[in-house]
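Obj.: predict assembly geometry.
Materials: sequence records (below).
Method: joint structure prediction, all chains together.
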Amino acid sequence: MIVWSTAAPAIASAFLASLVEVVEALTIVLAVVSLRGWRPAIGGTLAALATLIAVVLALGPLLDRVPLHALQLVIGILLLLFGLGWLRKASLRAAGVIPLHDEDAIFARETAELGAEVARRRTSQDWIAGMTAFKAVLLEGLEVVFIVIAVGAGRGLLLPAGAGALGACLVVLGIGAVVHKPLSRVPENSLKFVVGVMLSSFGVFWTGEGLGIAWPGSDFALLAFAAIFLATGLLAAALARRTAAVRPA
Amino acid sequence: MSVLRDILDELLSMFLGDARLSLAILAVVAAAAALVYAGQPWLAGAVLLLGCVGLMLGSVILAARKAGAGH
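Observations (raw structure tokens):
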């Protein structure tokens, strides 16, 4: 039976994190489309999806063989490394210390880089374009797979988390098919901030469980951790804005 | 091979983007594990949670200070 106090944050985390990753992959695939058309873009994307499915099919059954506490500990530590990194970057971006992720700028840069690469190399131009789409979809897809495993494996929630990720893919691809340009209006930093908060909370929760710590309130501790990390992220952004503004004479 | 190398580089940077922060997180986890081993699970939980919160704050402020000094 699904425990919604754990399942809801897992599904929401997988959905929001996947939203960010799929938007990033779509930007690069659209850059490929604008330069070389749909064929290499679809070819590269399908090859990447096939590779991702092979990775999941190969590694998935191994998860069942790992003792639960060891799995929670390893995934918890990876989530801490990943989640705190996202939250740190999102706080610095919110404070204006580092520039915001700009899908339009990335689209323009990718298109220019791909154009230069195609002109320089003698290899088939469609091959280079297809490989660009392949790499983008595979890299962002691997991040999605990791997040689904990380938020789902510790409590047998792989299917609900996977459904959250699939939902995000369908939403982004649906909107992308309609507007047919990079989704630059997605509030990416806010999403990354929220996902950073949730992944960090899961990270502390799983790492603790893996070490044998019984959190007070059991699964509800996750919600308390999320509130603490949200407050920390907001405080960090405010302090960073003030610190960066005070420049040495 | 360059595709494989790019993918491995990217995967590594997913988890070890900021080497100092990553090392500090591992140190906090190790401290929590030592406290659990010493029979202090509640203290271990507090160290894990507050340690991560402190690292996050410290890391952001340090980066902001560096950015401020760089201008």
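Conclusions so far: Chain B has a mean pLDDT of 87.
To do: check interface contacts against the pulldown list.
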